[in-house]
Amino acid sequence: MRILLATTNPHKVKEIRELLTGLPVDLTTLARWPDVAAPEETGATFEENARAKARYYAAATGELTVAEDSGLEIDALGGAPGVESARFGGADTSYVEKFALIYRALAARGAPDSTARFVCALALADRGRILFETRGTVEGRIAPAPAGDGGFGYDPIFFYPPYGQTLAEAGDRKAAVSHRAQAVRALRAFLESQF
């Protein structure tokens, strides 16, 4: 069985590959289809975007396709950046700049250590049909300042209380609790049930 991982983010590809190690599947990436343009992400929820991307890439490539949409929801900011996590502050804004925008917004609301969560919605599609979907979340809060150089994206500002550190400081322990790991483990269980 061959599955297309519909992401261009090398960090996500690495995480998903590691979590699916040992399954009798051939994982391929969008690098194999350089002429397939990315769809616009217009969904109001992570689930809508994951389903739309999975259907789009499955139809465009003819491959069984896994797509996910994920991001950070900060309670004091009304759930922002949410589905706009990757584009927060502008498409070309660095994560250091995104962090600064978040800290300024939280300071203005008097909630510097707001509760927050990472969310990952994942969908598996075969052409136009969704075969499986799931959602993973991990609860935490915004760290007083960015810390750690592991992980990627918003990991340096996401403090995970059970570990007493940010996910960027958690090293290999991140995979035990992360939102994406939860979703991919559920996908793995579904795929194993199909063999």
Task: Note down, in words, how this protein is organized.
Helix content is 31%, strand content 26%. The protein is built from five helices and seven strands, in the order E-H-E-H-E-H-E-E-E-E-H-H. It has helices at residues 10-19, 46-61, 95-108, 174-177, 179-194, and strands at residues 2-5, 26-29, 64-74, 115-126, 129-142, 158-160, 165-166. Helix 1 crosses helix 5. The chain is an alpha/beta fold and 195 residues long. Strands 2-1-3-4-5-6-7 form a seven-stranded mixed sheet.
Largest sheet data: 7 strands, mixed
Total number of β-strand segments? 7
Order of helices and strands: EHEHEHEEEEHH
Indicate the structural class: alpha/beta
What ranges have pLDDT less than 50 throughout 5 or more consecutive residues? none
Topology:
Layout: E1 2-5, H1 10-19, E2 26-29, H2 46-61, E3 64-74, H3 95-108, E4 115-126, E5 129-142, E6 158-160, E7 165-166, H4 174-177, H5 179-194
Parallel strand pairs: 1-2, 1-3
Antiparallel strand pairs: 3-4, 4-5, 5-6, 6-7
Helix pairs in contact: 1-5
